[in-house]
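Researcher: We plan to redesign the surface later, but first we want a full-length starting point. Tokens attached.
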């Protein structure tokens, strides 16, 4: 198995194939905009929707890097990636989920064409391609855990599986 075949496998498991941990796609399935916008009372945490936007931003950034394109909507700070313009707007929430799916599939398609000699190719931020992709997978998994914890707190995810 090549390095990139392994990365594709890990990307698939982090997004939609159950493994030792729940993947992102099922963690977002069945949520309404209201549930995605919910925040525990008195808690300084990001909502599920804010977290989904954050994940989408960094997936899109990698996609632009791999396609050697400029991002038209770069942010100045990481906090800006958590922004939600229309909380409780069901169509806007469904667009976010759909965009995550589209970007994920495009990333899988592109990463699947890479060869081991591409692994250490530097991306525009100076990070080797393979390392960046690996970090993004861990990043997605970390935030998926946060999403599931929020769902458990709101009662929309089983407390035990």
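Model: Full-length starting sequence:
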């Amino acid at each position: 198995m090549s390095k990139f075949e392994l990365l594709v496998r890990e990307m698939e498991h982090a997004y939609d194939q159950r493994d030792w941990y729940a993947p992102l796609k099922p963690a977002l399935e069945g949520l309404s905009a209201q549930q995605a916008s919910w925040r525990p009372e008195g808690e300084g945490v990001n909502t599920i929707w804010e977290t989904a936007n954050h994940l989408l931003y960094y997936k899109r950034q990698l996609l632009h890097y791999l396609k050697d394109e400029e991002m038209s909507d770069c942010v100045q700070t990481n906090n800006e990636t958590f922004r939600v313009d229309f909380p409780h707007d069901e169509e806007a929430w469904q667009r976010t989920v759909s965009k995550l799916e589209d970007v994920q599939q495009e990333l899988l398609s592109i990463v699947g064409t890479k060869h081991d000699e591409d692994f250490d190719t530097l991306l525009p931020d100076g990070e080797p391609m393979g390392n960046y992709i690996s970090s993004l997978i861990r990043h997605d998994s970390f935030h998926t855990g946060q999403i599931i914890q929020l769902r458990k707190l709101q009662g929309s995810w089983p407390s035990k599986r």
